[in-house]
Each structure stands twice: as C-alpha cells, then as structure tokens.
Predict the 3D structure of the following.
Amino acid sequence: MADETWLILGASSALARAFAQEAAAHGADLLLAGRDMPDLEALAADLQLRHGVAATPLSWDAADLAAQPGFAAACAERVPGVLNLFLAAGAMPEQAAAEAEPSLAGAMWAVNVTGPAALLGAFAPILAARKAGRVVALGSVAGDRGRRRNHLYGASKAALATFLQGYAARLAASGVEVLCVKAGPADTAMTWALPKLPFMAQPAAMARAIWRRAGKGGGEAYVPLIWWPVMTLIRLLPRRIFNRLDF
Amino acid sequence: MAAETNAASPAVRPELWKALTLQSWGRAMPGPCLAARPERLRDLQAALAAPEGRALLPRGAGRSYGDACLNPGGAVVLTERLNRLLAFDPASGLLLAEPGVTFAELLRVFLPRGYLAPASPGTAFVTLGGAVAHDVHGKNQHLAGSIGEHIAWFDLLLADGSTRRVSPESDPALFQATIGGLGLTGILSAICLRLAPVPSNALLVRRQRMPDLDAFLAGFEAQAAAAYAVGWIDALAKGAALGRGVLEVAEPSPEGLPDRPPKPRRLPFDLPGLALNRLSISAFNELYWRRAPLIPQEERVAYERFLYPLDAILDWNRLYGRGGFHQFQCVLPFREGEPALRRLLETVAAGGNASFLAVLKAMGREGIGMLSFARPGYSLALDIPARPGSAALFAALERITVEAGGRIYLAKDSWLSPQGFAAMYPQAPDFQAVRARVDPDGAFSSGLSRRLGLG
Ligand SMILES: Cc1cc2nc3c(=O)[nH]c(=O)nc-3n(C[C@H](O)[C@H](O)[C@H](O)COP(=O)(O)OP(=O)(O)OC[C@H]3O[C@@H](n4cnc5c(N)ncnc54)[C@H](O)[C@@H]3O)c2cc1C
C-alpha cells in the first residue's frame, strides 16, 4: 500500500476520519478534502504523527459544481502514483425541515449527488488513463427503499448508488474498482441527536470493515453486514405492510 | 490551532444536543443532563451555547468516581471525539494534543518511540483534559509530581466564546486555577504536555509482603529514591495485621520486553451485589497477599501492566453490582498524619465495609493548582460499596481526615461537606476569584461544585 494515496472527500466526518486512520495505518498517504480547514489541519497533523505518512489538507466544497473539474485535475497533478478516492461528503437535513425549506433539499442534493457526480465524472478519464485506483463511496441503507421519515435523503443516496453502478461499468475495462458502501447508521455527529437507531455502529469498526471490503474489489457492500439481510427483508415487504410502518 | 480568537455569543444548535443519563465510574448516582459530543473545534465552540441557558460542564472519559464529571439537570460537553495529536517535538518531548486523547493512546503511540506520560493515573482510559482538571498523580508522584508540573501551556475555551492560550507566564492565576480546576474555568481545547523519555517499554518491579502498617511506612521511607512505589493494603485485616499488604517498587528497565498486545476482558453484566461480600473479598485479599514473595524478587514488567493493572478487566466497576460504589481517597501529612491513617483503616475494617485492596502511596510534591490534591504525605484510597450506611461512614472518614490536616481527593469524592472542603482547600477563595474574572455569569458548574458550595 506504500505508494498509494487516498483522497478523502468530506474528511471531517467521523467515518472519513476513521477511514483515513485505517489507510494511514496501512502506509498510504492522504489528501484530506473538505471545508473546515483548521479541522483538516488537525487531522493531517494527527495522521502524520501517528503513522508517519504524508497528509495534506485541501479546501473543497462538494456543492460547488463548477469547481469540480479543476479540483480533480489539481489532485491528479499532486499525485503521480496510484490515487484512490473515498467519498464521504454527505448531508442529512431533517426531512420536515427540508420539506418546509426546499432550498435545504436542493443543497443536500448538491452535496450528496450532483457535486460528487461532477467530481467523479472529472476523475473518470484520469483514472482510466492510469489504469489504476479505487473509488469507494459512502451510500446508505436509506437509499434501498424510501422511508416515510427520511425519503428525501434516501432518494439522494439511491441516486448516488445508481450513478455508481454506471460509473463502475464505465471504468471496468481499465481495472478501476468502484465500491458503493451501503452504510447503516453510524454513531457520529450526524446521528447524535436522533432517537436511538437500530444496529448503530462505531465509525472505527465500520472503517475497518470498509477497508477490508475495498481490498477485495468493487461492487456493493452493506456495512455492518447485518444490514444485508435486514434490507433484503425490508425491500421484499409488500407495499400494503410497508406503507403502514412508521419509520 | 489559533491562539487567540474571539467569538460573538452563538445561538443554540439543537442538533448538537440530546438527553442522556450519564454515570460516573462509581455508578452510584445517575446524572440526567443534555449532552453534546462535538467532533471538531467549531462544534465545541458552538456547544458553549447550552439549551435553556443550562449550566455547562466539560467531561472526558467519566473516570471520576463521584459527581465531578456529572452535571445533573445541566449540560455536559463530551470531549472524547476531540482526540487528535497535533504536534510532537522529540528533542523536548513536548506534545500538543486535543483534550480527548487518552493515556492509552499516548502509551500506544509514544512508548515505542521511547516516551511516556510523566505522570499517569491508575487507568489508561482517562483523557488528558480530565487529567489536567484533577491534576492527577501516579505511582511516581513523590519524585515526578502531578501532571500539572509537566504542562507547558494549554488553550482554554472561555465562557464568552474566546480561546485563551494560557501558560504559567501569560496568566499564572488562570493557569493555576485550571490545573486541578474541575472543568470550572472553561474547556481545555488543546494541551501542551512534556512527555518523559524512557529507556525501554518495561520496568524492573520488586514486590514484597509487608506484615503491618508500621512495616509498610518504613518500607516507603526506605524506598524514597525509587522511581515508582505503590502499596496494596488488605483493608479487611485487623488487629496486629492491620495495614498488611504488598509494596511494589519499580525502576525503568534498560532492557525492554517483546511487544505483545494484551487482550482485555470485559465484565459482561453487573454482578449481584452479594457476590462481593466479606468472605469473597477477604479470600481475594488473602490470596493477593500470599502470592507476593517474602523476600523481594525482581521481575521485568511492561509499563502497561504496572501502571494500569485493572485495565485488563474492562468495566470492572460492575463488580460492585447495580448499587455502585464509592471511593475514598485522602492524603495525610507524613508524621502527624500517621495515627489518622491507622484510624481510617480501623474505621473501614470495623464497619465491615468490604473493600478490595486499598492503595497506599507516598506523595512528595505539592500540586501546583489552586485545588490540586497532592501534597507531601501518605495517600490512602479505598473502594466502598454504596449502602444505606455510607453517609455516616464517609462523615466519619472526613472528620478523621480534617482533624489530621489531610485532604480528600475530589476526583474520587461524592460525600465531602462544604465545611470540610473549605478546611482542606485553603486556596478555594483564590480559585473563586479567577472564576469570577473568566466566568462572571457562572456558565460552568457541576454536581460537585454545587455540592461543595462553589456554585
Ligand atoms: C481505576 C481508576 C484508577 C484511578 N487512579 C488514579 C490515580 O492513580 N491518580 C489520580 O490522580 N487519579 C486516579 N483516578 C481518577 C482519574 O484520574 C480522574 O478522575 C480523572 O480526572 C478522570 O479523567 P476523565 O477523562 O475520565 O475525566 P472525567 O471524569 O470525565 O472528568 C473529570 C473532570 O475533568 C473535567 N474535564 C474533563 N475534560 C475537560 C476539558 N477538556 N477541559 C476542562 N475540564 C475537563 C471535568 O469537568 C471533570 O471535572 C483513577 C480513576 C479510576 C477509574
């Protein structure tokens, strides 16, 4: 892993931080992209100190569509070797708030879907030309079936998953693996104030599972694995029953 | 890492908060509160605006035994996710870190590089922030002092939203009020600590049986030059055997041990309160005593095992059952305090207040904080299960301690009275003066501070 660099997109999130630790522990260098520069500087210092790898904070805003191609090119220039992408940028406004204020839903869509799509689109020719690299993106179990309480967010994650299917096909010939992680709820700032969620997992454990799974190649993966049977059941629930559930 | 910042009073961000019932390590008193767990500095600052104007308290790993880390009815800011290492200079040993970094992480990252925390409590799960706020001490206090002596400076987030970089030179009063300051002066957001170089990852440890208290105290005196010294007392022993136990002394070992990551075990459930009765404890204590050699023998032991013996069993506090337990720890001046040491042991043994091993240490240095616990003398710590009679027992222990000119450790305490506190901590008025300056509206408060009359 020594000559690889992971570009962590949305690196201030707890899951991204944990994944960056995992990658650094395996000797990978890091580019840490996000908006909160003081926070990214702290993370970069920590990774360097603990693991002796190079870690560089980069200012990046997922919602700034016009900036994506330039950002991808700048990253490619920085890293002549193998460049892997970990996409963790994501927003989850409360459903009711996003309904009351449609611009909130629009902003979420930009962070969760259109921004990442623009960025990954810009990276596609770069990765294809290098014939190397992986893309790991954080989807969500919320994208598997739209729930009454959270279907705006769910729809954005479904869109991301669908985008990644085609993206993976596009890059398949060049040997670039694309993994869509169907993440269950993680114990992070995003879920802190929410009512207790089932099978809540710790970011460090999820990061370890994602790292291991990413090493095995692309596709889709439920993390934690329990969500695979759970979501299979939920997807199979007849509509009449599903519609009566209050979740 | 901005040194000085100013922020206007921010609005409450409801998504940062949720209702929780926190416990302290003794698990004897629940603390219902609203809690935030910021993952970055910006959110830490935002958490200064507590919902409903509630009183605020920072909290580390909740390893304090009593109400120092509880704020019932108030708001608590958990620092566990602010745990980054920010800078390290091998030449000076200076480490800059966020407050949620634990001693376990320090050991894991820096011991392989030949550095160790200069003072460390008996469990590695403690955070740096919590350690500074109680000016914690280790088994080397008699020579190395408490942790406060090794703090170069820190960043303190004040009630008004500004962050102050505080060193002994820049603001001596605020520095001394915050070392051992119980989280009441503000929230430590970065701590610059001087790590100590060590020759290897191990210590040479000698253990020796001590037949009674006099032998024990003589043993400590004879070992005053040893880097580490700690005594384990069988708190159930009475009469001629009162104060018998095992004395452990240790020196850094020039030669190390091969690395072998230990596998911690977890106590999966609360034991029924009955499991720890007089018989089982006295059997355990007897065994511990018998296992120690009569003639000291030297053994090479990993720092981890010597410094944090109890950490091998996670959640051992559940041993005491649902009711929880209390700890009593005090320090008594060397000569005139010795009779009181005996009376404390007698009082606990007489009440049949089953205690596991009690811990005896010799302290050598005065803590630098206004409310620091440490002072030269003998420190005695005892676990006592929570029971209906606990109040009377603790009142008796407090009386003995005050009369002997001793001091009770607030990190362990749930019972000290405001009068007892005033007698034991003569610098409390200076501490309150600093608080009035940096927190004029009383934004910070805890269960402990209200109980002791500090507001
Ligand atoms: C098994 C065991 C053994 C122990 N042995 C020792 C020992 O040998 N020597 C010793 O000295 N102590 C010992 N202790 C006590 C322990 O070291 C202290 O209680 C310590 O303060 C716990 O740190 P914490 O991170 O758990 O903090 P908490 O218990 O959560 O909080 C303690 C105090 O620190 C404050 N605080 C926490 N974070 C911050 C911050 N960022 N800024 C400002 N204030 C903050 C809190 O407000 C509170 O007042 C022991 C405890 C246990 C459980």
Remarks:
- The longest helix of chain B spans residues 334-350.
- Chain B touches chain A through 23 residues (CB under 8 Å).
- The radius of gyration of chain B is 21 Å.
- Residues 85-198 of chain B form a domain with the Uridine Diphospho-n-acetylenolpyruvylglucosamine Reductase; domain 3 fold (CATH 3.30.465.10).
